[in-house]
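REVIEWER CHECKLIST
Item 1: Sequence provided? yes
Item 2: Single chain? yes
Item 3: Sequence as submitted:
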Amino acid sequence: MIESPCVDVCTIDPHTGLCEGCGRSLDEIASWSGYTDAERRRIMMSLPQRVDAANGRRAGDGGGKR
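Item 4: Structure as written out by the authors:
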């Protein structure tokens, strides 16, 4: 079985291009089964920072309109 960060919240944020559930990009999601274990671990280690950064942008963007 391939380890995956998927949490079944599959919605891509249009501003970041990342899944709001797991933090992966569409390319990463599509290629996930073809990655080596090391590649998947490297990506998974970066996901918490990505999600935090994306959440900060959403919270601080004021909706993007003035």
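Item 5: Key structural point noted by reviewer: Residues 7-51 form one domain.
Item 6: Recommendation: ____
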